[in-house]
Write a structure and sequence with these properties.
It contains seven helices and ten strands. It has a single domain (2-227), classed as 3-Layer(aba) Sandwich (Rossmann fold), CATH 3.40.50.1360. Helix content is 33%, strand content 17%. By secondary structure, the protein is α/β, with parallel strands linked by helices. It has a seven-stranded parallel β-sheet with strand order 1-10-9-6-2-3-5, covered by helices on one side. The protein has a three-stranded antiparallel β-sheet with strand order 4-8-7, with helices on one face. Bound molecules: fructose -6-phosphate (F6R). The site of fructose -6-phosphate (F6R) has 14 residues, from loops.
């Protein structure tokens, strides 16, 4: 696991975006695993800027979101379909038809995970998977206790995660109880992983992910099993590393 300590989130965003543009330059239909939340936003901004500067054609770039809430009405402003459309597809300028999000609708939820796995396989797998980390060590919405071999499936959100994400909703009661997420095993199949973390509230999770034992109790520790991982953390998030 390579660890880069950055001064600012924007520095991390520029570094990751430059790897992505290099990939797209040689393979215009490269496949990216997309995270939501606050952490990856600097990547999407930097990618838009660098792609414009390099006059890079993004029209064939493909994407797969990590996760989605279960049961939000279609078009809900906090559904990750909406968030991915607004913060990634529009910001970066991607073709919306090539960007997939797990289907969190109750109707069909029992087979949605399997269908998502099939779509990822049909795309030839994910080239670069972007990851944030939860303060409790989750990646995607794989909460502590998730099998390290898990695939895309419906999971119950940890209370900590619902509290952390309550900032996006009117009240914690409005935060969904379940989500559909790429599994830890799905994430490990991506050819390259980048995990970003900013702020002191991520320091314990970052230290356990990189230096702790590989354990389902800290799903982010599974990145130690992957041969091509870069962790980008600011000084606060890296402060508990030895
Ligand atoms: C988002 C996701 C989550 C977040 C994590 C950190 O798609 O899968 O694992 O990456 O909860 O969230 P932020 O970046 O908002 O601190």
């Amino acid at each position: 696991t390579d660890v880069l300590v950055v001064k600012t989130p924007d520095e991390a965003g520029e570094w990751v975006a430059s790897r992505f543009t290099a990939t797209i330059a040689t393979r215009p239909d490269a496949v990216f695993g997309l995270a939501t939340g606050s952490t990856p936003l600097p990547i999407y901004r930097a990618l838009a800027r660098q792609a414009a500067e390099q006059k890079l054609d993004l029209s064939r770039v493909r994407g797969f979101a990590l996760d989605e809430y279960v049961g939000l009405p279609e078009g809900h402003e906090q559904s990750y379909r909406t968030v991915i459309t607004n913060e990634v597809v529009k910001t970066v300028g991607l073709n919306p038809e090539l960007v997939h999000v797990p289907n969190g609708a109750i109707d069909g939820i029992r087979t949605a995970g399997e269908r998502y796995e099939e779509a990822i396989v049909a795309a030839g797998g994910i080239d670069w998977q972007i990851l944030g980390v939860g303060s409790n060590g989750h990646i995607g919405f794989n909460e502590p206790g998730s099998s390290l071999a898990s695939l895309t499936r419906v999971v119950k959100l940890a209370e900590q995660t619902r509290q952390d994400n309550a900032r996006f909703f009117d009240s914690i009661d409005d935060v969904p109880t379940h989500s559909i997420t790429q599994g830890v095993g799905t994430i490990l199949r991506a050819r390259n992983l980048v995990l970003l973390a900013f702020g002191e509230h991520k320091a314990a999770a970052v230290a356990s992910a990189i230096e702790g034992p590989v354990t389902a109790s800290v799903p982010a520790s599974a990145i130690q099993l992957h041969p091509h991982v870069t962790v980008l953390a600011d000084e606060a998030a890296a402060s508990q590393l030895r």
